């Protein structure tokens, strides 16, 4: 008899065999190429800042670089939408529903497995970033420090990273919800439009507080040693993403439970 753990394990194995998941890992090229560019003093790599870069700040800044490239949100949306919507379209979802009556657990297992895979990608991204930093970038002593962390800046950098990470979790929840209503391609297009709207409204005073991108941008602009400003911004972003994700999961589960498969 299937349970949420066994479905999660099956989904993890299926995700690891999918091409779009491996395409997502091209984000590892960003810290790799940047580090090599710094090492060779390439004109393509532009460094701006009064302080020297150190290992943990390099990782977070590289992740922010990824965050600014929409294609990775698009790919993750496609991964999430195909995980549920793709199986609804090709009827392979029946392999679960015929052996397990609780569709809510099937939905949860698919969302959690996608989150787990993306979290694993973040861990790999961290390892690659630190490795490339100490292999290449560290040789530029004029702009690079050999320190791993600076204690006063650690909390703010960590909160900044988590705020960006939460946006990807929302991407998974929102795209999975959309795939319970629409075909995969339609779900991804709708996600893209809504996501661009969130970025757009982050620039307008009256509605910017409803955009998670506003809080991420603000965290990137403050003094990293000033945790008194970082924590309220992080908590506001966490609350916003949590509300959005809860609504998406609630609607997605209800739709999946009553959908005719």
Automatic annotation (TrEMBL):
Coiled coil: none annotated. The chain crosses the membrane at residues 21-42, 54-81, 111-137, 157-181, 188-210, 230-253. It comes from the Bacteria. Keywords: Membrane, Transmembrane, Transmembrane helix. This is ABC-type transport system involved in multi-copper enzyme maturation permease subunit.
């Amino acid at each position: 008899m299937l349970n949420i753990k066994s479905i999660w394990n099956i989904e993890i194995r299926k995700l690891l065999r999918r091409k779009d998941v491996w395409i997502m890992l091209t984000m590892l090229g960003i810290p790799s190429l940047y580090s090599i560019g710094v090492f060779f003093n390439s004109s393509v790599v532009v460094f701006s800042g009064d302080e020297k870069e150190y290992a943990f700040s390099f990782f977070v800044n590289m992740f922010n670089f990824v965050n600014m490239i929409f294609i990775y949100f698009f790919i993750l949306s496609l991964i999430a939408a195909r995980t549920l919507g793709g199986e609804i379209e090709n009827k392979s979802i029946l392999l679960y529903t015929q052996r397990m009556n609780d569709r809510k657990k099937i939905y949860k297992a698919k969302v959690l497995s996608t989150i787990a895979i993306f979290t694993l990608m973040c861990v790999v991204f961290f390892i690659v970033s630190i490795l490339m930093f100490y292999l290449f970038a560290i040789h530029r002593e004029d702009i690079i420090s050999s320190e791993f962390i600076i204690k006063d800046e650690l909390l703010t950098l960590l909160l900044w990273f988590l705020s960006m990470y939460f946006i990807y979790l929302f991407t998974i929840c929102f795209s999975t919800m959309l795939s319970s209503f629409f075909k995969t391609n339609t779900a991804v297009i709708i996600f893209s439009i809504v996501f661009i709207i969130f970025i757009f409204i982050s620039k307008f005073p009256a509605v910017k507080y409803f955009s998670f991108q506003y809080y991420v941008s603000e965290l990137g602009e403050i003094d990293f040693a000033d945790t008194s400003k970082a924590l309220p911004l992080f908590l506001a972003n966490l609350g916003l993403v949590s509300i959005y994700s809860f609504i998406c999961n609630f609607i997605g589960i209800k739709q999946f439970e009553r959908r005719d498969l």
